[in-house]
Every structure is written in structure tokens, then in C-alpha cells.
Amino acid sequence: MQLLLSPTSPYARAVRIALMLKGLDSECTTQWVDAASDTPELVHANPMSRVPTLILDDGTALTETALIMQYLDRRVPHPPLLPSASANTEMALAGRALAMLDAALWIMNNRKYLGADANSNVLGERRLNTLKRTLEAFKSDPPRPVSKVIGMGQILLQVAIEYLEFRLPELNATETSGLGDWGKPLRKLEPFHLTEPH
Ligand SMILES: N[C@@H](CCC(=O)N[C@@H](CS)C(=O)NCC(=O)O)C(=O)O
Prior knowledge:
This protein is α+β, with helices and mostly antiparallel strands. It has 9 helices and 4 strands.
């Protein structure tokens, strides 16, 4: 397998963490690409030019983080990313985390391509408010505590919180969500600190 990724992509980070938790990282080579510059290898595998893209040994190119994680879970079922006792809550959590990443990326891309004021409009404010609201909701409805089996939603949520801290520090994601203590056991795991953005 070959994973096409970029150093700061939170989506790619989540897939790398899942690969490591599954013990599949040694079977997967990595190719760093600049998704925004339409690197030919990436465009060839994924005309949308987005990372992560996972190229399987038979040439199939998988895209979309949640689908790639599901593929990894089918390929190596243990430890499960969607444990049967909590599969629904993990999927619900994964959905929230991915939506937060999508909103954060949208805000960042607006700033990058359209300028510092690009989010000062009704849509930009809406995106920021939905992020705040989603973070705040974790205070009254926290995710299941982290245990030995790390779920896909838990991976994505911790990655999203750290990405928000990195890119949108004004949101104070850890404090606003009250998830500092919740994420502590995850931050201690090797796959998380080996993939920290810097
Ligand atoms: N829905 C996709 C989002 C992936 C995504 O947007 N990746 C960004 C990097 S963080 C990217 O490749 N952006 C390049 C572009 O959109 O041109 C997923 O879940 O994998």
C-alpha cells in the first residue's frame, strides 16, 4: 500500500494513526505531496487532488478518510476502529469530528486564498459559530472515555481538537470542549505523538 499525504493534513494524520494502531504502517509506504499544487502522482490516483489517498496493491485508490479507515478495519479487524458495542456512537463522533475539520479547513482556505477578511461575512461567521457550538456541546455530552480499544471517532475527535488548537487558536478548542482530560490518554500514545504536526 502507498499513502499519499501532506505533513499538516489532519485527515492524513488520522489515517496514519489508524495504520499504526492496526500495525499496518510497516506495510505502507508514504509519499509526501502538496495537494494544493496538483502533484501529478496525486492527481493520477485521485483527480480531486486531495489527501489522504491510499493506493492499494492492486492499484485501487481509496479516498475519504472515513472510508479509508473502514477499509483498514476490514483488512485488520483487531483492534477494531468500530467496536461492536459502541459502533454507532463512534460513527456519530466521527461525523462530528470530520465536520469540524471540514469547517476549519474551509475557514483556513478562505484566509489563504481570499485574504484575512474572507470569513467576515454571513457564511464565515456561521462556520465559526457552528464550530464553537459543536465544541461546547461536548461539555454536556462528552464522548465515551478512552479505553484500550481506540475508536475511529475518538481518533478523529482528538485530531480535530489538536488541529483547531494549531490553526484556529482563538477558538480555545480544548477549553471550549472541556476535553483536555478526556484526550490525555490518547496524547500519550505513540501514534499520536509521532504524527504531531510541526
Ligand atoms: N473529505 C476529505 C477531505 C480531505 C481534504 O480536504 N484534504 C485536504 C488536505 S487537509 C486537501 O487535500 N486539500 C487539497 C485541496 O482541496 O485542493 C477526507 O475526509 O479525506
